[in-house]
Specification:
2 domains, alpha+beta, 314 residues, Phosphorylase Kinase, domain 1, 5-stranded antiparallel β-sheet, 9 helices
Length: 314
Amino acid sequence: MGYNEIKHILPAFDFQGRFVRVDEMTSGNINATYHLVYRRDAGLSAEYTLQQINHNVFKEPASVMRNIEQVTRHLRERYLRDGLDPSRRTLELIPTRAGDTMYGNDKVGYWRAYRFIDNVNVYDRIEKPAHFKEAGRAFGRFQKLLHDFPVENLAEIIPDFHNTQKRFYAFVAAVERDGASRVRDVKPEIEFFLARWRIMGEIVERIAAAGMASPLAVLKVFGEGNQNHLSFPMPGYTLALDFKATPRALALADELDRLVVAAGGRHYLTKDSRMSRETFRAGYPRLDEFEAVRERYGAIGRFGSAQSRRLGLR
């Protein structure tokens, strides 16, 4: 998209200077994004990011913008309070000439603008471990700065976004509809998923029937494990839940253990504090090989822990 396609949008925003050029930023896959360059007095440039909000995904653009305005204002105030310049640390919305954070309607679309942050590297894919570290640092700082943010003021942008059951049945319906004719290309992945959804559903139903709730639920998809005797990964899904350690929760955990074993699954030893010997042995079929290695190197009876003794290791 060039200047002619967005020229009717530009006057709506409080951009400073004379328009020079526009470049489309194509790395995103939801909204349409453009880099604008303006020329100000004395030859100085002003750069902005113009974005058309995808109205098919975000049905209430005004609510989206109210959320963004609240969060960015909170972050800006926190940085200023700490004596830091917020200009390169958080998004800065560019208002419309009417003083709003968004311009548009169903006819021309819904648009927003930010001050462009230059001289940075943006990665669509992690290329080295240092990138993981910096991403984690950034997310941690972001959450720390928002620890006192009144989340009750935020609007729910995509209803039921975290309603796993509803999203699952929407997925099943999409597979049956196959509107984009792509099911044949991912048929093995779909079959893999559907073969395992029943056990996950039964686990959730057992938890609900017990009147329990987890403040944390993390679902991950795993591939093959490594050659270690007690390697945890295997092709499938792992579900992590948190419960307060009460007799009722421990009884529920025993019940869920039986479901996991029946499905051919296993438990993550690094986070185990209560698994039975029977559950351990059922989940790790190479246990005897592991014990043989320990015996070969004289570790039997010499190296142990409360966990190893509970699990029946020699």
